Fold:
Amino acid sequence: MEKVAEILAEASAEAVEPRFRALATGEVMEKAPGEVVTVADREAELIIARRLQELLPVPVVGEEAVSADPALARALTSEPAVWLVDPIDGTSNFVAGRPEFAVMAALVRDGRTVASWIWQPSTGTAYAAELGAGAWRDGHRITRERAADLPEKWHGLLKSRFLDPALHHQLHTRARAFGRLEEGLRSAGMEYPLLADGGLDFILYWRTLPWDHAPGSLLVTEAGGVSARLGGTPYRPEPPGCEDGLLVAADPALWERARDILLGVGG
Structure:
């Protein structure tokens, strides 16, 4: 566990942090409409992938590699073990000079995330989780406290960027039942730890790319929370495009109540 955390921090120090607020002309490219990538993303992913395979020689499903060759993501369902890598989660923040970005990795075995790591360069904080063994912040065990019983006291995020207009309107209308609702930090690597640490009570994501959600989902569930599809199925990393919608919450009771409110169940 410690070795992977070191790999992420070292790759960040080598390829990412020196370019923060110092990207040169030509070092930022558009890889899809509204989606940017930088030389830092690509260099960090290559460093991380090489070093992870030295630890365990299994396929690496990296965000930037899959962008170039989408077929690589099939390894999540065809291979017994896979590394997942997100070299800069929150690239748009990184490009804009905002500190909300993270470097993340996860190990997936037989379709389940069994270990995960999140490095936050701006805070100097390392999060890690291991299936069945717990969640940690800088080596200290973290346990998510139960949230308040009343929805009007809950603080949540509704990640609505990829919602169609009708669903966007429905969800935001129903979400008025919650005490405080925000759009988010544009970085799952900052948002999931915030929930695990008690700064948020729930998050509703729509698009769920595996490198974005496998690390944080395991962190939250190992801290005592819940990460599940809206039908109740526990989150498992899948290739892009498989299923939309993921509700992450501080505890099982809050997950059930928040899901019912957002879906309009029970009136």
Q: What stands out?
A: The longest strand covers residues 81-89. The chain has a mean pLDDT of 96. The chain has nine helices and 14 strands.
